Amino acid sequence: MTAEEQLAILRRGVVNIVPEDELLTRLRSGSHLRVKLGVDPTAPDIHLGHTIPIFKLREFQDLGHQAVLIIGDFTALIGDPSGRSATRPVLSRAEVAENARTYVAQVFKVLDPARTEVCHNSEWLSRLTLEDVVRLTGKMTVARMLERDDFRRRYTAGTPIALHEFLYPLVQGYDSVAVRADVELGGTDQTFNLMVGRDLQRDAGQPGQVAMVLPLLEGTDGVQKMSKSLGNHIGITDTPEEMYGKVMSISDPLMVRYHELLSTAPEERIAAVREGQIHPMEAKKGLAAELVERFHGSEAAEQAARFFEERFQKRTAHRPTEVRLDTAADEMGICQLIKEVGFAPSTSEARRLVHQGAVRVD
Amino acid sequence: MTAEEQLAILRRGVVNIVPEDELLTRLRSGSHLRVKLGVDPTAPDIHLGHTIPIFKLREFQDLGHQAVLIIGDFTALIGDPSGRSATRPVLSRAEVAENARTYVAQVFKVLDPARTEVCHNSEWLSRLTLEDVVRLTGKMTVARMLERDDFRRRYTAGTPIALHEFLYPLVQGYDSVAVRADVELGGTDQTFNLMVGRDLQRDAGQPGQVAMVLPLLEGTDGVQKMSKSLGNHIGITDTPEEMYGKVMSISDPLMVRYHELLSTAPEERIAAVREGQIHPMEAKKGLAAELVERFHGSEAAEQAARFFEERFQKRTAHRPTEVRLDTAADEMGICQLIKEVGFAPSTSEARRLVHQGAVRVD
């Protein structure tokens, strides 16, 4: 495949490539590019938001390039402040190690192990000394750091920025030097960090990496970035039923966005979903089945669909008009009530329904 | 001596003791206080400005306390940004080692070696890892750092602050933890750093040190803090003649200030100098002789005084009204000319005279 053809594939679904002409030059060189993706094990599971750059990495692999997956077991201890409005809680080594335990297995649901170099950044970061840190921080100014959107907002609002948060972009950038990355993948909130990596590499006499910026996936609330800590995530280790149910619970506009960012269906089908030529319920079912199949196989997808239909859809058809309860309704939370009467499989699912405005009282 | 009597001595010439009641409590405990002073070998010589806290440290020693002198061979590599309007040039290890070579010998011109613990902060700072730095920086916010006068001024003016400069106060504070300081001495521009040390100690479960803030000595220009890099310093290894001559060159108001900060003469004499009851020229000669004697002995002081009188004062009486030169005057700088005709012993001394307005053309 020519460099131009490769670029056409790689450019799909990407927000920005900085600088794109350099990527083309490197593709033309015919060498196997080292494509870096760092994931910090700040939560035990990988969710659909993480899978966007992971799938892009898979695309690189399919074109013959080398994936360099960095498990940020050290950076997770600092906590990436990118896009955050407050300092992250500090994790212990034990928590990080526990989170990291199944990360690689989860990632290999998407990546090709044969073309993946997996490393933990504690390998080199735990060897850095104060003197190294002085050298590294000497390459960055306070003003440039405070020009970053998230930091500027926090500084202006008087929300504390702990000084260790300023180390994060430099340390992530140092990873690029350590693995000699040609390309680094990241969400839009990573743009600054990706450029720092490029600068540090050039400072170290390496060619600076190309930054490939990918869209951020909104969580099931349709508002905030998908995040375990916000509880709006769909984990790739969620059970088939959970995953199917969560996809079915999202709003129609979000369903279109999920199609665009997650589905591998042909462009024509996605256009049909976008333009409402496919009924939203059917479109959602298609997406839910596609995603469950991707992470659990086709049999699980069929089962999850059946489970959903029997448990919720058919029940909806025979929805009881009156429900007798053992306990007095006024002693019960609304979510508990919804669960008890069988409108939702759990109180957390009920809570989601309430938040989406699917529940009306009287 | 009672704690109150000790405090009365120690308080002399001090700008601030934070908090003073804690110092009294510790003095009352009767234990030998560990009194920390850190000096970064950023220049080869100690100057009179440095001697102010060193003399205070000597006072503590004379009261039976333990001096802890930290040679900042590591911190000199970072460069203390306190009171600076721009990032310091980065020194190499070799430069710092060369500067540090005679530091201890110079300091022992004032301190009692028997009650001085000398350490180099590279002993513990070079062992700090990135993880330690993350922990340390996690205790400080960006906003608190930018509230510091010097940093705020630079940030507001758009003068770059390199990120490593933010590490300095924390690293200096860590020194206090490492040596378990009871008291730390520093100039007024060190107040922030001293308080950071206090915080870090308390965070580490130690009693927080008492900060003893001393005045900063202006250089011979009478305007800026004495500093080798500004060329307005009087080094304690200057030759007796240089030292004597530099003291004689200062302005009358600065001479009063030098008496207050440097002289050990009785308070009555200093008051007499302040109120002009002693002729400024005589007062200056007394101070010059006192300082030369302190660092070079009484014989050197007498010689320097004689040298000064013969070379400059008597010459002034027989000042030539016309001077013939071998080279054309218009091919010569004014300072060179002043030296050639014997009005100054060197061009740098001539430059000082020009700056002070002592030279008029025509």
What would the keywords be for this entry?
51% helix; 6-stranded mixed β-sheet; alpha/beta; homodimer; globular
Explain this structure to me?
Two copies of one chain form a homodimer. Chain A has 362 residues and is α/β, with parallel strands linked by helices. Chain A has helices spanning 3-11, 20-28, 48-62, 75-78, 93-100, 103-107, 122-125, 130-137, 142-147, 149-157, 167-179, 191-203, 240-249, 252-262, 267-274, 280-296, 298-317, 334-340, 347-355; strands at 16-18, 34-39, 66-71, 116-120, 183-187, 210-214. In chain A, strands 1-6-5-2-3-4 form a six-stranded mixed beta sheet, sandwiched between helices. In chain A, helix 11 packs across helix 12, helix 13 runs antiparallel to helix 16 (280-296) and helix 16 (280-296) packs antiparallel against helix 17. The first copy, chain A, is globular, with a radius of gyration of 23 Å. The termini of chain A are far apart. Chains A and B meet through helix 8, helix 9 and helix 11 of A and helix 8, helix 9 and helix 11 of B.
